[in-house]
Amino acid sequence: MKKLFAIAILASFTTLAAPLQWTCDWPEAKSQTFSLYQGETATFEPTFRVNGRTVTNATIEAVWYQTNGMGNAWWKLDGATFAPSNDVGAAAYRFFVEASVPGSPFPVPQTIYRANGALRMLPSPGFTPNAIEPPIRTLDFANIEVANDPWTEAIESNRVEIATVRVGVASNSAAIETNSDAIAEIAGTTSALSDSISTLSTNVYTKAETDAAIAAATPAETDPVWEAEKSGYATAAGLAALEAEARPAINGYSR
């Protein structure tokens, strides 16, 4: 029984949150520093007053907090509770409470951040910091002036490379067409050579066929004048007569 009672008490304490309470007198901004042991849960409970009157219709919409080195980046609590899961192990946190008021006693409905301060985190045994993703910041180029941006040069370089690739593709296409024409011409020449070889193969004769054709050929007609002269020159009388005709010319040349 005692054990169950102790467990019930322990469970009730683990769900308790330390209330962080302070008063903000409008329009003054009230900054408050609180100490919290790591691993504990705390709730932000500011009280707003206007002209000494407590504002009962203010609603805490969120709590923004950050640690050193975060610049304009903030984590956001959806609500007013800071839990161990929101603790990254920093020694301290800066916070702002975002509260909305619908109007009276405020002049107009608005969102206020007058309640702010710091959380000083105290070491506690057994605490393990939680790894939280850094806040995402939106960069609006409409609100900044970009100079010497690196991407313009990269885009231009890519354009030049694309143009070079296109020229190379066009050159390769032209070369392919030229090669196709040459291949077609070679194919035509090869076809013509094949026809010629086929014709030569058809007109080849054997030796026996050639001899038979020569034997069957009609002898050429002889020249009777040449035959007479040739036979006359072939005799001794003919040679003597030829010498007698040539002697005067020879003797004249000798003088």
Rg over alpha carbons: 60 Å
For the largest beta-sheet, the strand count, sense and barrel status come to: 6 strands, mixed
Mean pLDDT: 78
Distance between the termini: 174 Å
Helix/strand class: alpha+beta
Low-confidence stretches: 1-14
The shape is: rod-shaped
- Write down the secondary-structure element order: HEEEEEEEEEEHHHH
Q: Report the count of strand segments.
A: 10
Q: Give the fraction of residues assigned to helices.
A: 40-55%
Which range does the strand content fall in? 15-25%
- Tally of helical segments: 5
Question: What does this 3D model show about the protein?
Answer:
The protein is an alpha+beta fold and 255 residues long. The strands form 2 sheets. Strands 2, 5, 6, 8, 9 and 10 form a 6-stranded mixed β-sheet that branches. It starts with a helix and ends with a helix.
What is the element layout, followed by pairings?
Elements: H1 2-14, E1 18-26, E2 30-37, E3 42-50, E4 53-54, E5 59-66, E6 75-77, E7 81-82, E8 92-101, E9 110-112, E10 115-122, H2 150-202, H3 207-216, H4 224-233, H5 236-254
Which key features would you list for this structure?
alpha+beta; disordered N terminus; 255 residues; 6-stranded mixed β-sheet; 5 helices; 4-stranded mixed β-sheet
